[in-house]
Amino acid sequence: MKNIYEKFKKIISDKPKLFRYFTSLILIIFCISYMGNVLNNQDVLDPANPIKGFAKNSSQVALASQDEPLVEIEEINDENAEKETEDEDIQDNKKGSENDENEGDNEEGDAESDENNPESSNIEILNPEDANKNNDKSKINEYFTTSIIHNEIVTEKEYSFIIKQKNPNLKVKKTEIFLNDILVPEFKGTVILDEGKNSIKVKVTYEDVDGKIFSVSKTYSVHLNTEDIIIYSSLNEEMKVTKDKLSFTAWAKKGEKTLPIDVKLNEQKVKGENGNRYNVTLNEGENKVIVSASDDSGNTEEKSFLIIYEKKDTKLRIITNLKEQHVTTDEIKFNAIAKFGEDKAKLTVENNGTLISGDDKGNYAANLIEGPNYILLKAEYGDETLIEEYRIQYEVLPPGGEDGDLEDPNNPKIETNLKDGITVKSSIYDIYVIARDHKGNRIHPSQMQVKCNGELIGIHWEDGVQTSYKLPIRNGGNTIIISAYDSEGKITIENFHIKGIVKDKGEVTGHATISIEATTIGLGYIVPPTKVEIREGKPASTVIDKLLKEKGFEYESQGKIDNAFYLAHLIKPGLVSNPVIPEDLAELVEAEADRFSPDDYNQDSLGEYDFSNGSGWMYSVNGHYPNYGFSDCYLLDGDVMRIRFTLFYGRDIGGSGGLGGSGSNWHKEW
Question: What are the pLDDT digits (tens) for 605-661?
């Protein structure tokens, strides 16, 4: 060993450069060995979860791995998904981009906002009856209202409705309509229903005064039935009343067609007094109302209603200023007390099935929900009970008051013969309504409403130009509300207040003036202006029948005197003697008519198809040509009726509108 060392030492001493290399190699080997030993013995440290403690609704992404995910994934429901989509849309509108650090800050901020502002997600509104039943006011829609009736059965595929905003402090960012869970593109007030049950979801996205974005949605069910006869009525299938007088409405439809109905009370036929309204006198105890309708194929539908009238001779009475009415505020105040003779009786008051309390003087305040509300007053004394029920119709009006936003010139325009403040001496008042948008386009009747004393009035006649309604007038004050909305959602609401003086049927209510004219053929007055009596409940056809007989005329007609009466010909010897048609009128008729023969007439009669294919008798009342016949016209005191002979669909006498789209009036009247 010593010899080896001495040889190694000798080699190193003879070669110093080799010695330095050898020394360096030893040092390198030593360092590598030492570092390897240190690293091999170091503890393994797991880094802390970088997103631990984030809000539960923060964006979380699971990493694909065989092991457990780094964070717990939250299941996102449809409602949260809708909100995230809205948030993404809002973020897309911001300019520029943000780095990862800023994105982290935004996530924390959003989480904090969600916790402090529960309205930052979608608010789902229950239907009013459910909300009221559960006494959960947080589910009552304080944001918007619609004209949709939940669970309504309709017979026409085209279903129109409007949306009215309640809170003017909220800015509408977006309105979406979903029909059967499918977004309706470019909603313009109408959807097309499928047969059977349909869901209509209305979703409105708002921005509040603090800049917070949230959405409110409400879902309705509407049932379409085009195949069956559907009977509608204001009656309940079973109801108890304490008064023997009962007023109700009833009608029937199949598809788009309104069907005639038969109404019976206790097997006795009841005649409608005005349109679809019926007034009956009940027997004490049980009464059965049956409404039936048949279609052209002979199919029949019948619906029965049990009305229980409980009559009691008692000293118990309720004294109140409450009455059935239509209101536009969500609260009604009234006074009510109960007495038995001069003694005070117990009074219980319910508002839509919920007990409400008054003060010791009998003053009450009831909060109303949109649509019909029912306030029940129940008086008790010993074993005696008296019940009275009042129906209060609450309609939510848009911002701008009862007449809408009068400052907006683009609101729809409403034309009608109804005048505010007048007195009507009749139980029936015929009106017409024409509504147009700011571009002059006619608004479809499905986008109009007429209410009289809170009752929705059905269309009496529609001809493509004007829409007619029959108003049931009662003694005293009457409130009529006409509304129309266009495809842009703009709405106009007009209110009219009229006084009614209603006499018993058959009594004289005043006088009207009637004339019969044939100026278009140069004969002037056939019957000069004549004052005639008008009677309560009697249509104009009965008045004309009497007048013609008094003047020595016979006539040919279609329909019956009280139903679909149409005056076809007047008959009297020598009635048409030397007719002269003005030259300018003759030129127009000849150019337009399929047949024009100035010599084609009978000297003893005048009526339809004489001279031309467009001739006949038409009438106006106070200068307006109605779109319904004499038997549906009820004259009022002071009315002026002109019965005029036309050569071509009223265009020569200013009456083309009465025939619904038969061309415009010519440049003058003859």
Answer: 999 889 998 889 999 988 888 878 888 888 988 899 999 999 988 888 888 766 644
Q: Residue 146: which pLDDT band, with cuts at 50, 70 and 90?
A: confident
* Residue 233 one-letter amino acid: S
CA–CA distance, 212 with 463 (Å, rounded to integer): 49
**Least confidently predicted of 101-115, 281-295, 574-588:** 101-115
Q: CB burial class (10 A; 0-12, 13-18, 19+) of residue 326?
A: middle
Specify whether 277 is located in the same domain as 322: no
pLDDT of residue 531: 94
Q: In the listed set 309, 325, 356, which residue is the last one of a domain according to the structure?
A: 309
Which residue type, as a one-letter code, is found at position 462? Answer: E
- In angstroms, the Cα distances linking 180 to 125, 221, 383 are 17, 10, 53
Containing structural domain, residue 464? 413-500
Average pLDDT over residues 20-39: 67
CB of 146 within 8 A of CB of 162? Answer: yes
The Cα 645–Cα 248 span in angstroms is 40
Tokens of 346: 């117990």
Q: What ranges in 54-196 are assigned the alpha helix state H?
A: 78-92, 100-116, 128-134
Eight-state DSSP code of residue 149:
P
Segment 559-588, tens digit of pLDDT: 888 888 888 899 999 999 889 999 888 888
Residue 199, classed as helix, strand or coil, is strand
Q: Which helix (H) or strand (E) holds 630?
A: none
- Distance between CA 104 and CA 86 in Å, rounded? 19
- The dihedrals phi and psi of 310, each to the nearest 5 degrees, come to -105, 110
Residue 101 in domain: no
Provide the greatest CA pair distance for the chain.
170
Say if pTM beats, i.e. exceeds, 0.90.
Answer: no
CATH code of the domain covering residue 593: 2.170.130.30
- DSSP letter assigned to residue 474: -
CATH number at residue 196: 2.60.40
Q: CA–CA separation, 419 vs 429, rounded Å?
A: 12
